[in-house]
Design a protein that fits this description.
It contains eight helices and 21 strands. With 315 residues, it is α+β, with helices and mostly antiparallel strands.
Length: 315
């Protein structure tokens, strides 16, 4: 095995949105950076409602202009009590312009965000991208080293772990986690519909959890449907026509006829929090640091904040 002697100042481990954002932010801040990781699986159909702070960060990094047209504004938020109880709360609707905002956020498919971040990354002379798998991370008093599957070792004073909830970087830094699992699974899918969404995100509160519809460009929306594990497996196994009909029933036909698109995801819900976000020359961002259920658009937005923060500190 050979050592890479190039003078990297930071190594980012993980090729997802949080890792890409960290790498772009570090390199844009003048930090010589190498990003190591595989591209996200093509079947990931999740979307993210980017909040104002995330959009500001992406604008500053020159990423938002590359993907803004692939996003849809969330101008209205609606909450509906769909618990079936005899006494139910009235529906509530919030409007962004009531508090002086253009939108509460912008919903974008994660794959579109990754494409824009990757495009921007390739324009930065301070950033090198290595598509390889990390086998291990080790630290000394003055640097951290990353071992690659296809041979070689990278070393730098800082390693940013953006390698997900089973983070090798977190393990190498000897950082423990606090974890709480729920008996819930989120089914994610994107779908087309015949009625316009009018830039409105609707969250139905059901006995098993939230069933949330979030606008995408055109007559398209994304769905996060929280179910019991058995029901989630059963629902995800339905054929396209049956799943489309099930979604239409669950959202009370507010968007007309529904037609699901290819790709479905199942994500067990829980909360995982690292007891420290940095130790032994390793800093954690994204799901390596914290895993949060997809409620209230907090997960990836927090990961992008992590990425911006570590880049500011390092620069």
């Amino acid at each position: 095995m050979t050592n890479d002697k190039r003078a990297f100042q930071a190594i980012v481990v993980g090729g997802g949105p949080a890792g890409l954002t960290a790498a772009v932010a570090l390199a844009a801040g003048g930090v010589a950076t190498v990003l190591v990781g595989k591209k996200p699986a093509p079947g990931d159909n999740r979307t993210t409602a980017l909040l104002a702070s995330s959009v500001t960060a992406l604008e500053t990094l020159g990423v938002w202009p590359l993907c803004h047209e692939q996003s849809a504004p969330l101008s209205f938020l609606r909450i509906v009590d769909d618990t079936g109880r005899l006494w139910r709360a009235p529906a509530v609707k919030f409007e962004a312009d009531e508090i002086g905002l253009e939108a509460f956020g912008w919903n974008i498919e994660n794959r579109m965000l990754v494409e824009a971040l990757t495009q921007r990354a390739h324009t930065l002379p301070n950033l090198e991208i290595v598509e390889d798998e990390v086998l291990g991370v080790a630290t000394t008093a003055d640097h951290a080293a990353v071992e690659l599957r296809h041979g070689g070792m990278l070393a730098a004073p800082l390693v940013v772990g953006a390698d997900g909830r089973k983070s090798l970087c977190r393990e190498a830094a000897l950082i423990d986690i606090d974890e709480h699992r729920t008996r819930q699974v989120a089914l994610t899918v994107c779908f087309r519909h015949t009625r316009p969404h009018h830039e409105t995100s609707t969250e139905f509160h059901t006995p098993t959890g939230q069933c949330t519809v979030v606008p995408l460009p055109g007559n398209r929306s994304s769905l996060v449907w929280v179910l019991d594990p058995a029901a989630a497996e059963e629902t995800a196994a339905l054929g396209d026509a049956d799943l489309s009909a099930a979604i239409e029933r669950a959202i009370h036909s507010i968007l007309g006829k529904v037609e699901v698109e290819a790709g479905r995801g199942l994500f067990p819900l829980g909360v995982v929090t690292a007891r420290s976000f940095g130790r032994n020359r390793i800093a954690l961002v994204g799901e390596a640091a914290h895993v949060i259920p997809p409620v209230g658009a907090q997960g990836l937005n927090l990961g992008l904040r992590d990425a911006a923060t570590i880049a500011e500190l390092a620069a």
